[in-house]
């Protein structure tokens, strides 16, 4: 029996989320709908013109949101990450602990540096635009992996954003090797279309022969496979993953369980903020398949959870909301 359901590796970023207008994005030269990596100077420019008093702050990063979701549904999760010994770094670790997630920095003093942060700008059409300064998490490497936690997990979950740096890519590949040697299954998320667009060959290196589970949205799936329609893309993805999930926004999701495709119906909702919907889908799905649920049942749970996320502000459920969703799944 393994201790953890999921061990995640990824960027540790303090998410600062706030509402903006399309005019704000245009006036401040921010490309809408994408995650853009910036330096500290550029991010500070934006910090000066936003209303930080109304911004919501919490520990984040794509994989962090996912392992927190696993914990909220009742699973056991662990996170390999890197923060600095500054105010935001200690805030991050405390928030992660309060979310029920063990982490690789427990009992250690963080290094000198600047903790990364992500400005999450949400427009009235519920679309998210992210402006990210990675800070010290950009130096995340094999030295920040906890081999014991990876070995003692049912699944390793790898965040696609790590592909942007050579040390991050090396950590992805080493973590996958550790997992495979220990019989830990490997899940990978592409994280963002821009990652697939600019780092396609890097993902080939990380995936190697295949991964056990791959998460992608429709755009990412088509970019990765080079196909211009989702039906051809999903057939091509069988070459890279034993199982996979393609999320389709308001149209739900499709799951390949290794034999057949399962269509997951969407749950009716009023979209307010799409930030974290994919992370939540992955977390709920991983909780399901590591806790006795079928792929279809896990997809249903993930669809319910992500529909709840887009109906509110922020990428995280409240604890009671997770329990209510589980109760709906198992009445």
Automatic annotation (TrEMBL):
Domain of life: Bacteria
Protein's UniProt keywords contain Magnesium: no
Name of the protein this chain belongs to: Adenosine kinase
Gene Ontology molecular functions: kinase activity
Keywords: Kinase, Transferase
Record-annotated Carbohydrate kinase PfkB domain positions: 48-318
Coiled coil: none
The organism's taxonomic lineage, starting at the top: Bacteria, Pseudomonadati, Bacteroidota, Cytophagia, Cytophagales
Keyword Signal part of the UniProt annotation: no
Family of this protein: Belongs to the carbohydrate kinase PfkB family.
InterPro entries per UniProt: Carb_kinase_PfkB-like, Carboh/pur_kinase_PfkB_CS, PfkB_dom, Ribo/fructo_kinase, Ribokinase-like
Species of provenance: Mariniradius sediminis
């Amino acid at each position: 029996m393994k201790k953890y359901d999921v061990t995640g590796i990824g960027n540790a970023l303090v998410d600062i989320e706030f509402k903006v207008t399309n005019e704000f994005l245009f006036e401040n030269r921010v490309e809408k709908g994408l995650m853009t990596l910036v330096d500290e100077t550029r991010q500070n420019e934006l910090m000066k013109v936003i209303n930080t008093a109304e911004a919501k702050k919490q520990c984040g990063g794509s994989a962090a949101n996912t392992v927190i979701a696993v914990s909220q549904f009742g699973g056991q999760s662990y996170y390999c990450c890197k923060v600095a010994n500054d105010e935001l770094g200690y805030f991050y670790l405390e928030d992660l602990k309060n979310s029920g997630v063990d982490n690789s920095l427990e009992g250690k003093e963080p290094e000198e540096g600047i903790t990364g942060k992500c400005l999450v700008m949400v427009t009235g059409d519920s679309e998210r635009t992210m402006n990210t300064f990675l800070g010290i998490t950009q130096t995340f490497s094999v030295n920040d992996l906890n081999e014991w936690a990876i070995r003692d997990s049912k699944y390793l979950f790898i965040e696609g954003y790590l592909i942007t740096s050579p040390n991050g890519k090396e950590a992805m590949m080493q973590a996958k090797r550790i997992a495979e040697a220990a019989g830990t299954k490997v899940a990978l998320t592409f994280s963002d279309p821009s990652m697939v667009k600019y780092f396609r060959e890097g993902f080939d290196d990380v995936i190697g022969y295949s991964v056990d589970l791959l998460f992608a949205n429709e755009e990412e799936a088509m970019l990765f496979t080079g196909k211009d329609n989702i039906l051809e893309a999903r057939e091509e993805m069988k070459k890279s993953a034993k199982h996979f999930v393609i999320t389709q926004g308001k149209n739900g999701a499709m799951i390949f369980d290794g034999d057949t495709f399962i269509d997951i119906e969407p749950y009716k909702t009023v979209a307010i903020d799409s930030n974290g919907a994919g992370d939540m889908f992955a977390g709920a799905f991983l909780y399901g398949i590591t806790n006795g649920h079928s792929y279809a049942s896990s997809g249903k749970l993930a669809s319910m959870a992500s529909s709840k996320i887009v109906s509110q502000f922020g990428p995280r459920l409240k604890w009671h909301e997770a329990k209510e969703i589980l109760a709906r799944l198992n009445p």
